[in-house]
Amino acid sequence: MEDVKIIELYYERDKRAIDETAAKYGGLCMSISMNILGVREDAQECVNDTYLRTWESIPPHRPSLLSAFVGKIARNLSINRLSRNTAAKRGGSQGALILDELSGIVSGSGSVEEEAEAKEMIRDINAFIGTLSEEQRYIFLRRYWYCDSIGDIAKSCKKSSNAVTVSLARTRGKLKEYLTERGYDL
Amino acid sequence: MKKERLFELLGEADEQAVTAAMTPPKKSGTSAKRLAFAAAACIVLIAGAVFLRQQFNGIIVENLPAGSEEQYSSQADTAVAQGDTEIYYVQNGEIVSATEWLSWEPQEVFAAWKRQNSIAHDVRLISVSITDNGTDTESGGVAAHTAGDRTVMTVTVSRELREYFDGEGGDLLEQSLQKTMTGYGDPNFTPDEYRLVYDN
Asked: Which ipTM did the prediction report?
């Protein structure tokens, strides 16, 4: 079923909207959640919560890209769960590894808690992503949005794991520089 | 700033860019590179025996009768053929395909199928085997092998995949795996039977 029709079902408060979303994007949500948490039961709960959250969000939202919309919900729910789940953090899930990688960008002391500042930072992050080459952007988003493993990214873009690791390290360095230049307290 | 907060904010990346990243960028490989691949493939084709083994690269080929011990495990010593490969996936309730330039190696093809169908990375391909009903005979100290006329492809996967196949739309997903795994490589070879086995 096309996204537009699924969204119409949400607007009509038709429960089939959830079934259609699960059929079409359940795999995507499960993949993101599993990548972050590495524990199937936890991931399944996050995916179920994703459907509920989507039901609560549409309306009023009318997403233009349903895949990104539900994927983002699954991602956020999984990150929240990861921060509560210290066992998963220790367990070497992709989420835990990604947090380790990101710790090289931030100091851990400053904060970007104000909504306005966060929105500005999101704009700058998107502008930064726009400066990347197609391949760098793909690798960066697969790692930090889809939370894929380095090995999976390497396979998908036919590079060695080492090449992907190097690309990510360079992009993280550039992101840090980009945000620091713009005055963020990282 | 805390790393968890940055992780969250990265989730707000532009939706168009995120959606575009669902498929890998097209290789901007030079035509010279493609020609080199083609030349390598030709060399492999000319070497008839090598060609036969290369079709089953990474696949165990064995005879169906229990008495037949001949096996070819061919990953180590042959060149890996590459080419445009149809990867089938489920979209909007139907099976569609995308063409990717891949090594014709089962793990690589399976990884591409997983990616196209958003299957989590813990799902693994354990093995692919092709068996036939050929027979081995020995007469006067001379062994002979008679090729069979029926081939069976057995794809063994980790049991996590069953959850996907048991779910809604699982039938189509399963069919997409079958079409992908039986469709790549030698266009003249299609197994007579396909079996999916879950690893315990």
From this structure: 0.88
